[in-house]
């Protein structure tokens, strides 16, 4: 059951009646790193940072972890052991991207921004030495500042950014129609 009262169907996610509010609520209340960080840090805040960094793909970047609103934030090492989970997560992601007209698969620029934000987060909110992998891989941490937004603030900021980015293409199309 979702916050909106709708049910989510993991077998047929494209037929589920989820809303952007369900996504924002789930992401704002889901802690990154399985909660193993200094303080509560939501997936919604993480998505905001990635969206700010991947400017040319800001909307896709905002939505890049949207599936986690329904499947949770499973750590990468555990996810590698769960091939069926990865398949389900991919199907949920496809349904979300289709619903909100986002190109699938994700642009590589979003994946790159995600890794840079991940490296920066680990420097700020995880134990010392956690981000060593980024140095070894040549990934430059993004310049971000983790705010540790509480869930209501993270949800509000996520929805605000969503509305700003989701409306932009429609406004451009309307302007072109008026000019044409």
Notes on the structure:
With 180 residues, the protein is mostly helical. It has a single domain (13-179), classed as Hypothetical protein af1432, CATH 1.10.3210.10. The protein has nine helices and no strands. The chain has helices at 20-28, 43-53, 58-62, 68-71, 76-80, 83-99, 108-125, 132-137, 151-179. Helix 1 packs antiparallel against helix 9, helix 2 (43-53) crosses helix 7 (108-125) and helix 2 (43-53) runs parallel beside helix 9 (151-179). The longest helix is centred in the last third of the chain and has 29 residues, at 151-179. It is globular. The model has no long low-confidence stretch (mean pLDDT 93).
Q: List unreliable stretches of 5+ residues.
A: none
Separation, N- and C-terminal Cα atoms: 46 Å
The CATH architecture would be Orthogonal Bundle
Summed up, the domain count is 1
Tell me the overall shape. Answer: globular
Continuous helix count: 9
Under CATH, the topology is which?
Hypothetical protein af1432
The CATH superfamily is identified as Hypothetical protein af1432
């Amino acid at each position: 059951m979702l916050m909106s009262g709708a049910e989510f169907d993991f077998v047929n996610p494209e037929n589920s009646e989820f809303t952007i509010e369900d996504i924002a609520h789930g992401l704002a209340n889901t802690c990154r790193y399985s909660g193993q960080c200094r303080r509560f840090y939501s997936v919604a805040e993480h998505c905001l940072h990635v969206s700010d960094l991947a400017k040319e793909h800001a909307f896709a970047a905002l939505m890049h972890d949207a599936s986690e609103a329904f499947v949770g934030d499973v750590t990468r090492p555990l996810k590698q052991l769960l091939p069926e989970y990865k398949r389900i997560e991919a199907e949920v992601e496809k349904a979300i991207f289709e619903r909100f007209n986002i190109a699938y698969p994700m642009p590589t620029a979003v994946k790159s921004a995600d890794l840079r934000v991940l490296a920066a987060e680990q420097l700020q909110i995880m134990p010392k030495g956690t981000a060593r992998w980024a140095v070894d891989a040549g990934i430059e941490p993004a310049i971000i500042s983790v705010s540790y937004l509480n869930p209501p603030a993270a949800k509000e900021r996520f929805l605000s950014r969503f509305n700003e980015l989701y409306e932009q293409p429609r406004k451009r199309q309307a302007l072109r129609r008026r000019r044409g």
